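As a warm-up, study this chain.
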Amino acid sequence: MSAHAQNISTGSQQFRQANGIFRVAEPGQLADSVNVWGDIPTTGRFLIPKGTSLPELMSYAGGPQNLNSDLFNISKVKIVVNVSRYMGVGKGETEISNFEFKYKDPIPAKLYTYDIQNNDIISIEVQRRPNFLDYFRVIGPIITTVTSIIILSDRL
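Now compare it with the structure written out below.
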């Protein structure tokens, strides 16, 4: 049984080592250290077992954020996962892999088979269409300010 399969069957426990550093790999287990940023509850540096898939890493980080809101239609939400890998000087500098999928659709197989390497930077973005409340949050304060100025100037 591989170390990764053994880790799944025994149930690894994630714990915080320091501010922004999370250890998922068991002590003594071969591991990669990656950065996770974006629209997720737990951002930071993760020490993960070798062979960890992107969906597993997203789960360790708490998954995409703010998807349970009743304010927008979840079927139109798109998840964008970017993996940046520094290739070194003279080797094209940085390689970027991009994965996009709708939240309601199955996770693409490429996410499961993508090989995460040490020092990768994974950014997760939740994209959605603006709704009425988003527009109101922008226009509401403007209308309130203009109305207040009109009322104040009328009273003076």
